[in-house]
Design goal:
Shape: globular
Distance between the termini: 27 Å
Strand content: 15-25%
Number of strands: 10
Order of helices and strands: EHEEHHEHEEEHEHHEEHHH
Strand order of the largest sheet: 3-2-1-4-7-5-8-6-9-10
């Protein structure tokens, strides 16, 4: 993997400490790093190589503001990673994730979450028998995007603090969403802080309502939610299981055997049955959005000069 062809950007507040893996020499050897602050005090002893930025607001509006301030970065890197500030991993594991992404040429990817992680979607929990799974879903918590996909998605971030519902559709911005969207199981990370509690508190101070923002996102973009599905999975021996009985038996069987280890958000029998039914029976192309509405948003954003897409 070429040195530093990845840019990792983390949004964080006053009380946060930079995760040790993010500034570890091994990680900085393969990824440049930016810190975008929604508070007013940067952590002490910040390395001079780190790009610092301040924007009071949510994660996605802050990312949009960061690239409006630094548009040259969109031309400099092949991949852009946006993990939450409370993701727990090691530099070695993070580098392993980046290496798999670069090798496979994914447009959109994330590391899987450990079984004890606080999570919203069962599909993001690690499936240890696989190196990665091709999916129709990568969540808001820690997506990595290719340059092309970020340029397409960036206009959607303007004015959207939480970004809720965008992860239902952004995989569709890839030229080949069935092949180039994945959850990487070989390099899982942990997320143990309750989801959105901290950010919701900060946004409440600014009068931002996440539920209202989500409704606006769905309405403006005509978002139709689909089921989160595993489309294929790569095993350690290099073979790949396509969607069908062999994949379902292995993947869902592992879920059943590991069910007691899922502590971040235990599921009921009903949750498990619904998830299994969706994997086996639901179509992968049910999610959609209004392409004309998207183009209008992208064109209006480009007219302001706030993106670098050509």
């Amino acid at each position: 993997m070429p040195d530093r062809h990845v840019f990792t950007l983390v949004r964080m507040g006053n009380s946060e400490r930079v995760s040790p893996w993010l500034l570890a020499p091994d990680f900085l050897a393969v990824s440049d790093v930016g810190i975008s602050l929604y508070g007013d005090a940067f952590p002490a002893d910040m390395p001079p190589s780190v790009v610092c930025h301040r924007y009071v607001g949510g994660k996605w509006s802050g990312i949009f503001a960061f690239f409006a301030a630094h548009p040259e970065l969109l031309r400099r890197y092949d991949y852009f990673w946006f993990p939450d500030d409370d993701v727990e991993t090691t530099a070695a594991s993070a580098c392993r994730f980046l290496d798999i992404v670069a090798t496979e040429g994914f447009d959109l990817a994330q590391p899987a979450l450990t079984l004890d992680s606080d999570h919203a979607h069962r599909i993001v929990l690690v499936a240890p028998r696989f190196v990665f799974r091709r999916t129709n879903f990568v969540e808001l918590m820690l997506p990595l995007m290719s340059r092309q996909l970020l340029q397409r998605a960036l206009p959607l971030f303007a004015g959207r603090h939480f970004g809720l519902a965008l992860d239902s559709i952004w995989h569709l911005l890839s030229d080949d969403p069935r092949q180039r969207v994945a959850i990487v199981d070989a390099a899982p990370v942990a997320h143990r802080r309750p989801r959105r509690v901290h950010l919701k508190g900060e946004m409440t101070k600014l009068g931002v309502d996440p539920a209202a923002e989500k409704l606006r996102n769905v309405a403006e973009l005509g978002i139709r939610h689909g089921s989160t599905l595993v489309l294929a999975a790569r095993r350690a021996d290099g073979s790949e299981l396509r969607r069908g009985p062999r994949l379902w038996l292995g993947y869902l069987g592992d879920h059943w055997r590991q069910r007691r280890q899922v502590t971040g958000r235990p599921w009921t029998w009903f949750d498990g049955a619904r998830f299994a039914f969706a994997q086996c029976c639901h179509r992968a192309d049910r999610g959609s959005f209004d392409a004309a509405a998207y183009r209008d948003i992208a064109e209006r954003t480009a007219e302001t000069g706030n993106t670098d897409e050509k």
